[in-house]
Structure formats: structure tokens, C-alpha cells
Design brief:
With 554 residues, the protein is an alpha/beta fold. 26% of the residues lie in helices and 23% in strands. The strands form five sheets. Strands 1, 2, 7, 8, 9, 10, 18 and 19 form an eight-stranded mixed sheet that branches.
Length: 554
């Protein structure tokens, strides 16, 4: 198989984030190469919780059902607390779900461990880009040539990377327009561009023991995804299949325990599992071990020229809440369409600056909430739906009034000199993530709300109308008004698909305006009124693609 000499995007790291980015880029038609140093996917469960927002991303990729088949049944997604696995006074709670009877997503989250999820993503990534996914291939070095203004005549603009086939030892040079580091907490890419990580480390040290034991009947009346042990119990259990395959998370103090010696002592590991389970005669077969450290760190920047970071390379999220991987999947979703637009020449490079502006604050908030969870004794304050961007309401998309979290009034904008200009609004502030309260929807910068669409066939949700280009949602009664706007934009090389929404969904007073949705399902622009001229939408699109700013036109 010939190694490519050039590509548009070089992805370093083939975990869930890198593989998802590969799948998304293939969907946008972006040539890319993914290299992963390991010979295959993870053999250890590692991350397990897949949030509703992540499932919406997989739904858009056509992977939702396959991921569900690889995960635990929904009936087992509970949290157990007890002294051990046979504690008669155990407490079992469910995941925070629908509030007030509102269906907030068509794709509820689930538990699907990383060792089961990665093969699903890898199969799809390889099917879409047969020559673009190379495992057992490590990044050796990289350097950037050209600054985007002054061309490097000798090497050509771009990132020049040296990669090594770990099977044959052969080295290859690849020139890429963009390099994305999805290579984890110890990111070679991040270190290579000198981006610092900020925040505390060593908040906890854990030995993760994967083992087999006949525990299915033991937990039959209390089957859960996670089993938290209360004093005098120590650590906790994670269900891989709630039958024979399990993980025991053993907290240790590196100052007083020799974890390397412990790992080498398999009989001792078996004793630890039996003691924690409360079953002294339990037969235990240890299969693998992994040590990990709890950190709460955030990269000082997500981009340095032609190099970008995503996933754990950009943020180390405490696992207390289960949103480390999910935050990374959100990074990939946000970044993929922006890279596609820049590579295609329909967007300026400034669009990539909006990647950090949008994603870094989310990571900051998730880290803070997860860190608070690690210190709480009464349970997590983060639920399965949180990463839907904390913006929900079951009311119509086009009729939501302006609110403090929805700066649609140009009078609130510092740069709104001309209220008739569809681009004369500042980037709206993103509502803070809040596990206990919901926020209005319809504002630029927030996720398009899920509304159930009627009919035995076709799209089941407004989210199914999104992508791969920009999507314009308008009342069916005004389709003839907005379709010419979309045609003008499409003719200018900025494809827009119009989807009329039925009056029954919008109410009797359906507005004459429209909502423009980005390929990642977030609202880019909102116009509550009829367009002022034939290029109204095109002007807004060009501004969004030049700056990354979401827009709310008065």
C-alpha cells in the first residue's frame, strides 16, 4: 500500500476522537491521513460513557445503531453504591433523564466501553478512507513551512511530518495543509508546538484491573454500569458486560505503594478484587492492568498556526461525570466542518480561530464540574444530557423570543452600528453549562433543538435535517421566500439546503423568518423576518465563514 506524500489533513491519534474526526472528514469529502502508533484499537475499556450529544454525532454519521449494539442495555445504566457487591443495604440510582416530560434528544446516551467503541469507529473510518487510516505508524517529527502569506519556495506551504511504520521501520515524509493532534494527554503534537497545559495534576492515582469472574448472578438484582464502594470499601467496579467481564478501579498512594510490584503479583490482584467484591471464594482471572492519574488540565491554546489540538491532547477531564471522551468528540464535530470549509476554499482561516473560542470554554466548564464531582459525597452533578450544550426547550425553533442568553437584539451588541445589516451582531455569549437548569433555544451558537417529526418514514427529528452543508429551516408557508435565497448562496459556491417545517410544529403564528444551521447542528444565524434583499442569506454566510461568528439578525 503506497504511502501518501501529501494530504489535506494529518490526524495524529487513532482513539475515539481521531477516528470520529476521520469519519466526519470523509463525510465532507476531505482527503486526510490518520496515523496511530499502536497496532490496534484499545484492549482496555478506559472511557465508557457516551453522552446523548455524542450519540447525536454518531447518528449523523450513520453509526448510532451499531454503537448501541456494542454497548450495555439501557436497563443497566444505573449507579450502585454499597460497601461491596453483596451489600444488602445498597442504593441504586438511574441517570438524570427527561425533565418535565420533554424529549430533549432522539439519541439518548449509553454505556459503551472504549474497547468496544473503537472497533466500530475504525471499521467505518477504513471503509470511508481505505488508504487514509494507518495503525502501527507513529509520528517522529514535524515542522511547519510557510506562514500562509509568504510562500516557502523550497518546501511548499504546510506541515511536513515524518512518520514511521513500526512494523517495517520505514520512514515517510508527508506534507499536510493542517495537522490535528488527537494523541492523548501526553500529546507529542502539543509538545511539538509548545502549547502548555494548565491545571492541577495527581488528584488521584488508580490501578485499573480488567478481570473475568462469574459475577452475573451476583449482581442480577442490582445490575449497574458503575459500582461505587462506600467505606470501608475501596475503589469501585465498572461493568464491561455485567456478566463475566469487569474492571476494578483500585485507588493507590504512589508515596506508600509500589504499584509496579503490585501489578506483577497477580495473586495479590485477585485478592484485592475478592475483598472489594465481598466474595472471598470468587474465582478471578486477571486479564490486563492499566495505571492512570486524575488530572484537571486545559491547554492554553487549541491552535498554533497550522496545528490544532482535540480531545485529551487539549484537555484532561476528571472521569467523575464521564465526559472526557465526550468533550473530545464534540471537539471533532466542531472542527471537522470548519477544516472542510477552509480546505475547500469557502472559508477563511479565521474560521479555525472560532474552534478554540467555542470549544475551550466548554472544556473549562466540564473540567470544573467534573472536579467538583470528584470532591462531592452525594453523587455527580453532571448528567447524560449535559453536553447537548445546556440549551433545550420543546417550543418552536423559529419563535423563541430573545432572552439574556439569546442576544438577538442589536442594541446589545458593541458593533451593531447598522441594524439593517444582517452581519451586524457580535458573537453571542454561550450559556454556561448547568446540570440543574435548562436554557432557551433558538439562539445563534446553541445546538438546534430536537423536535420530533411526524411520519412513518423519513427524518424523525429536526436534527436529522442537518448537514452535510448548511441547512435553512423555515416555515413551509415561507419556503418560496427563502428558497431563492438558498439558490443564490448555492450558486455562489456556498450550498444551502432548505427544509420547510410544518405549521403544526411551529404553531398558528408561524414566523416569516428562518434559522440557518451549521453542519455540526449548531445554529449559525437567525432571521425572524423576511429577507431584506436577494443576497440577505449570502451576506450572512460569507461573514460567518470568514469569522466563525454566529449571527442573530433583528
Amino acid at each position: 500500500m503506497r504511502f501518501p506524500e501529501t494530504t489535506s489533513v494529518l490526524i495524529v491519534g487513532g482513539g475515539p476522537v481521531g477516528l470520529t474526526l476521520s469519519v466526519l472528514l470523509s463525510g465532507y469529502g476531505v482527503p486526510h491521513l490518520l496515523v496511530e502508533a499502536h497496532p490496534g484499537t484499545s484492549q482496555h475499556p478506559k472511557a465508557r460513557g457516551v453522552s446523548a450529544r455524542s450519540m447525536e454525532i454518531f447518528r449523523r454519521c450513520g453509526l448510532e445503531e451499531e454503537v448501541r449494539r456494542a454497548g450495555l442495555p439501557a436497563s443497566q445504566v444505573h449507579f450502585y453504591r454499597g460497601r461491596d457487591l453483596v451489600d444488602p443495604d445498597f442504593v441504586r440510582t438511574g441517570v438524570a433523564g427527561q425533565e418535565g416530560g420533554i424529549e430533549r434528544t432522539p439519541s439518548p446516551g449509553l454505556i459503551c466501553s472504549q474497547d468496544a467503541l473503537e472497533p466500530v469507529l475504525l471499521r467505518r473510518a477504513r471503509r470511508l478512507a481505505p488508504d487514509g487510516v494507518r495503525f502501527a505508524t507513529r509520528l517522529v517529527a514535524f515542522a511547519e513551512h510557510g506562514d500562509g502569506v509568504h510562500r516557502d519556495a523550497e518546501h511548499g506551504d504546510g506541515v511536513h511530518a515524518t512518520v514511521e511504520d513500526r512494523t517495517t521501520g520505514e520512514r515517510h515524509t508527508v506534507r499536510a495543509d493542517w495537522l490535528v493532534g488527537c494523541d492523548g494527554a501526553a500529546s507529542t503534537v502539543r509538545e511539538g508546538v509548545g502549547i502548555a497545559m494548565e491545571g492541577p495534576t495527581g488528584l488521584g492515582h488508580f490501578l485499573s484491573v480488567r478481570f473475568e469472574a462469574p459475577l452475573g448472578e451476583v449482581v442480577a438484582d442490582r445490575a449497574s454500569a458503575s459500582y461505587f464502594l462506600t467505606p470501608p470499601g475501596r475503589g469501585g467496579f465498572l461493568a464491561v458486560d455485567n456478566d463475566r467481564h469487569w474492571i476494578y478501579q483500585y485507588p493507590y498512594d504512589p508515596a506508600h505503594e509500589d504499584v509496579a510490584r503490585l501489578i506483577a503479583d497477580r495473586p495479590r490482584l485477585g485478592e484485592l478484587v475478592r475483598d472489594a467484591a465481598g466474595l472471598p471464594d470468587l474465582p478471578v482471572a486477571v486479564r490486563s492492568t492499566l495505571t492512570w492519574r486524575m488530572d484537571a488540565r486545559l491547554a492554553s491554546a487549541y491552535r498554533r498556526s497550522r496545528v490544532l489540538l482535540a480531545g485529551d491532547a487539549a484537555h484532561a477531564v476528571p472521569p467523575t461525570g464521564g465526559h472526557g471522551m465526550n468533550t473530545g468528540l464534540g471537539d471533532a464535530d466542531n472542527l471537522a466542518w470548519k477544516l472542510a470549509a477552509v480546505v475547500a476554499g469557502t472559508a477563511g482561516e479565521a474560521l479555525l480561530d472560532s474552534y478554540e473560542a467555542e470549544r475551550r470554554p466548554v472544556a473549562r466548564q466540564v473540567i470544573d464540574i467534573s472536579l467538583a464531582n470528584s470532591r462531592a459525597r452525594s453523587g455527580y452533578r453532571i448528567d447524560d444530557e449535559l453536553l447537548l450544550t445546556a440549551a433545550y426547550r420543546s417550543t418552536a425553533v423559529l419563535t423563541d423570543p430573545a432572552s439574556p442568553a439569546d442576544p438577538a437584539d442589536p442594541a446589545d451588541s458593541a458593533d451593531s452600528a447598522d441594524p439593517t445589516d444582517p452581519t451586524a451582531s457580535a458573537t453571542p455569549a454561550r450559556p454556561a453549562l448547568d446540570p440543574e437548569h435548562t436554557h432557551p433555544v433558538g439562539a445563534p451558537g446553541t445546538r438546534l433543538p430536537h423536535l420530533r417529526l411526524a411520519g412513518p418514514s423519513g427524518p424523525a427529528s429536526t436534527l436529522d435535517l442537518v448537514g452535510p452543508d448548511f441547512t435553512l429551516l423555515a416555515a413551509a408557508t415561507t419556503e418560496s421566500v427563502w428558497q431563492p435565497q438558498a439558490d443564490t448562496a448555492t450558486a455562489a459556491g456556498l450550498p444551502v439546503t432548505v427544509h420547510p417545517l410544518p405549521p403544526a410544529l411551529l404553531g398558528e403564528d408561524a414566523p416569516a423568518g428562518a434559522v440557518l444551521v451549521r453542519p455540526d447542528g449548531h445554529i449559525a444565524w437567525r432571521a425572524p423576518h423576511r429577507p431584506a434583499d436577494g443576497a440577505h442569506l449570502l451576506i450572512a454566510l460569507r461573514q460567518i465563514l470568514s469569522t466563525g461568528m454566529a449571527r442573530a439578525h433583528p
